[in-house]
Design goal:
This protein is of the alpha/beta class. It has helices at 5-13, 24-34, 50-59, 79-85, 96-109, 127-135, and strands at 40-46, 60-69, 88-90, 118-123, 141-145. Strand 1 (40-46), helix 3 and strand 2 form a beta-alpha-beta unit. The longest helix has 14 residues, at 96-109. The two termini are 33 Å apart.
Length: 146
Amino acid sequence: MSRHEPRQKLATEFGATDIVTERGDAGVAAVKELTGGLGAHSVIEAVGTQESMMQAIRSARPGGAVGYVGVAHGVTLPGEELFYSHARLLVGPAPVRRFLPDLVDRIQTGAIDPGKVFDLELPLDQVAEGYKAMDERRAIKTLLRP
C-alpha cells in the first residue's frame, strides 16, 4: 500500500504484484477485492498512524495476522472491533539475530541489495534534512555519511 511512486517502483522490483494506493475504507475495499472478498492472510503495519493501523487490521481476513513493526505512537486499539475481526496481532521486538546470518550471507553473495532503499545520501550533520525528506516523501530512506 503506497501512494509514493519511488516506493511503488522499488516494491515491484522486490516482487510486489499489486499496489494499492487508496487509504482508509477505500484501501480496505481494494485489498478485499484483490483477495476475492476475504482479506489478506498477513498484513504488516510499519509505525504509521491510527488510520494505517485500522486499515491494516481491517484488511486482514478472519484468522489472518497483523504484525506491526516498531513502536506505534498515539495509536489505540479498539478492543471490541479487534475482538470481532478475528485477526491476530503480532507485536514485539523482531528476532533480528535469528535472521542476521542468512541476511548477511544474501547480501555478501549479491542475492539481495538492501541499499536500494537509500535514494538520498547526506552528511551526518544534515540528519534533520534527511528525516524531513522522508517525511515529505522526497526520499524513501536517507543514508547518512560521517
